[in-house]
């Protein structure tokens, strides 16, 4: 059994916003789907998301069963069937993302039909407002993955609404730095200090505000980092390989964790954090380099 180390401030800075941020980034590409018919949109997202979800969920179940004694979570053969309606571990992101794309597409097309295509800003605004409403009422729903869909739709729609703003950002360096500081300070403060809030809705609102500050901070930080040419190219490469990184990163990370712990019994979390994270990115990127452009890659990822 591999030990789980407790979260500290450095973990909170990442874990408080990383999944909402992934849905936000995914939302940036939602408008591309609107150019397609409903049938084409469904087929495209099934190929890009559902097919990889099924294949890699089956792979994860198989690896988990074979290495059951070395993992913290236990999966069973029955999970090959239940994965159709109950996502497997971190694969839930891909599963939920498919339905977010479809929900966004359906509502956007419906609003376009009744409001007209010339009111794109109004449509995006309505979707964002709807996202906020779903976020707050989703806590009372406990059916299938509907809570996750309701919880993350707001971040997805915010990403979609931000597409034109972030597509070609023209912001001066000193402005980027100055604007970055306030949300960064606020986000660190909100992550560092636990505020006791008894009311469930207020607690939810606090978490949402903290997450939004984290997303804004990371966006501004990203705009700063891409000014470095080499780093910009690396981040772009990570972007095109992002789904492969997400699907595969757990294997080198957990493999490193299992091997190092069982061989050396090292308990220092920094060792697992630094080297595990590096391998979690490097290994998928290497696989993508050799695998991209092949027929197999196209069949698996629909690209």
Explain this structure.
By secondary structure, the protein is mostly helical. The protein folds into three domains: 1-168, no CATH class; 171-224; 228-303, no CATH class. Helices cover 75% and strands 0% of the residues. It has 16 helices and no strands. Helix 7 (120-137) packs antiparallel against helix 8 and helix 14 (250-264) packs across helix 15. It is globular, with a radius of gyration of 20 Å. The model is unreliable at 1-7 (pLDDT under 50).
Radius of gyration: 20 Å
Distance between the termini: 38 Å
Roughly what percent helix? over 70%
Largest sheet: none
Counted beta strands = 0
Mean pLDDT: 86
Q: List the secondary-structure elements in sequence, H or E.
A: HHHHHHHHHHHHHHHH
> Spans of 5+ residues with little confidence (pLDDT < 50)?
1-7
Class inferred from helices and paired strands = mainly alpha
Shape: globular
Note the beta-strand portion: under 5%
Q: Tally the helices.
A: 16
Whole-number total of structural domains: 3
How would you summarize this macromolecular structure in one to three sentences?
By secondary structure, the chain is mostly helical.
Itemize the secondary structure elements and their pairings.
Layout: H1 9-15, H2 18-27, H3 30-33, H4 38-66, H5 79-82, H6 92-115, H7 120-137, H8 146-161, H9 163-167, H10 173-192, H11 200-225, H12 229-240, H13 242-248, H14 250-264, H15 269-291, H16 295-301
Helix pairs in contact: 2-8, 4-6, 6-7, 6-8, 7-8, 10-11, 14-15
